[in-house]
Structures are given as structure tokens and as C-alpha cells.
Amino acid sequence: MVKILPRNFYIRPTLTVAYDLLGARLVRIFEEVRLAGTIIEVEAYISEEDLACHAKSGKTKRNEVMYGPPGHAYVYFTYGMHWMLNVVTEREGYPAAILIRAIKVSEGADIVAFRRQGGETNGPGKVTQAFGINGSLNGACLCDPASGLWIEAGTHPAQSDIITGPRVGLKTVPEPWKSIPWRFRYRR
DNA sequence: AGCACGATGCTCT
DNA sequence: GAGCATCGTGCTT
What we know:
The chain has 188 residues and is α+β, with helices and mostly antiparallel strands. The protein has helices at residues 7-10, 14-21, 110-114, 124-131; strands at residues 25-30, 33-46, 73-78, 82-88, 96-107, 149-152, 162-165, 183-186. The two termini are 28 Å apart. It binds a DNA duplex (13 and 13 nucleotides) through strand 3, strand 4 and helix 4.
């Protein structure tokens, strides 16, 4: 029996949701094929206070989905070539989201492409590439299977199997945000 | 194994 | 015009 994570899952504090997403299963219907993978690495971006968060300068056209209701996808384009997949958390009006940085592919043709790496993607750009995720999914509802993108409950790892550390790629972000341990990873 | 760098285009100042 | 929540390559240890 499939259990799609409901909106109530996402409305909780972002760090709690990030922690709970480890072990959950990201599912994508792409060209009528079901692709799925276990979420193994995430990062939290929380509020206008967080100077690494896109919401640091307030609401803009780009980040407006983060201000919307929880349980939606925030997908943005960066470095001229990469799409990033985030899930929106907390109450509507409070900008926060979780970046899906890595998954272990378990279903779908793309498993072949990642088999050499043990089925794992190794960066957020690889997740979106593997699952055919782009800007057309920005704002998509993860609680509605019609969107073709959702998350199902999985087996959560034990606390001792989770590594916490600073978020990746924040070059010019001031402290404490640059080093705050808001990255969660399932130990290999 | 680790670091430096270029690709490439969109967003915000 | 600067900077970017990245990735692959090519070079150094």
C-alpha cells in the first residue's frame, strides 16, 4: 500500500521535516514510467534570517513558492545549467524549504545509468537530471499524484546512521549561516 | 584524493 | 554586472 506523505508532514518545523525525509522515497512519473529513489541527503534553508536562503532579501518572483503552502516543490535554475529540487515546509507565508541533494535510485530505467555509482546520485543537479525535473514542476503539489512528483513514507534510518554538517557551496555567506549544521546525510 | 577552473544563463542590484 | 544551494575535466600530490 502506497503512502504519499500528506501536507501535515510538511507543515512542521523544517529541521524536523529534513530529518524525517531521510529514508523516504522520492517518486516521479516521467514519460509514463515510474522512477523512485530513497532520499539520502538534504539541506534546510529557513526564513529570511538565514542569509544562505533565497528568501534572505524578501519575496521575489523566483522564490515566491517558498512563501506559499507547504508540500509544494520549489524548483529553481542555477549556474546556467542545473535545476535544484526543494520541498516547501512550514506554514504559508513563512519561507522555508529543503533541498534534495542525493537519492539512491531504486526503480526505473535510470537505475542503469547510476549502477556504477552504487545507484546513488552525488549532487542535487544529478537528482533532477535523473528524474527529469525542471522548472515546469516549480510550484507542483507533492500531495497530489496528478503532479507526477511526490514523496512516499519509507524506512527512517537510526539516529546513529545520520551525519550532520554544514551546507555545501555557500562561498560568500556570512557566519553563522555558512557553518550552521543544517545538512543531513544518511551514512553510507 | 584533492584542488582549480571554466561552462552557461538567469536573477537581482 | 556580479554572483550563483553545481558539475566535469584536467592537473597536482
